[in-house]
Amino acid sequence: MHSGGQVVVGVDGSAGALAAAAWAVEEAELRHAEQVRVVVVTGDRSADDEAWETARSVASRSTPRRSGPEVTATVAHGDPADVLVQLSGAGELVVVGSRGRGPLAATLLGSVSAKVATHARCPVVVVREHRSSGPVVVGVDNSSGSRAALRYALEAAARYECELLAVQVWEYVEPTPIVPPLEHELVELRDEALRGLSEQLSGCAEAYPNVPVRRIAQRGHPVAELAAAAEEARLLVVGHRGRGGFAGLLLGSVAAGVLHHAPCPVAIVRDAVAES
Predict the structure, then answer these.
(1) For FRET with 45, which of 60, 154, 235, 261 sits at 20 to 30 Å CA-CA?
(2) The UspA domain covers which part of the protein (predicted)?
């Protein structure tokens, strides 16, 4: 259980940013964090008055439902992604909206969200839609990054008191285009994926005995299958820089696809040990 930390949320006054701020406050309450820092970043100091008005407005509209974290407003100057990455060093979580469209929309366009998710020093959640129900879905591939994501997802499911869906996506590569796979070959590959999934959960899930876990081994494309699994999810969790079936997770098309196509908030979790 987290306590005493700071949740940073980057906003721009758009509806998407408001959803991100609301999500951040609810998450901070569940984590028992001390502070939610609402941040507007601008590269134009002549826009400071507008930026402060936006930051204070979002902060005031994001008041916790009960006694909880202090919600503060901040205006910073510079490149939005760089500023949020810098602030991530002192936070336990950074939250950003997806595809902002407000007067300060340049602060939270998709490319900024992706850059923050790639380089932040703590987990990042990109919020497309604020959800307070549904399971937590995690994509795993037996890499160190996905193991970090699995730990984060289990902790989140325990915090939300919900089910965890652990998903391993596998693809069958046909040796020639005219030779279809035999049914027993597909069954063997699916069973192998399920065994790998069980091995990854072994020893980790036991630490969260109250979290029901459902295992899914699905043939297909990682982006499509994860997005489908997360259709009713409260949160989708993926690892930073996977080295297995999600190779180059935040550096390639799979990461970009998940961030663009997942219907729910997406948490990107880096493996501090592997990247230290």
Answers:
(1) 60
(2) 7-128, 135-270
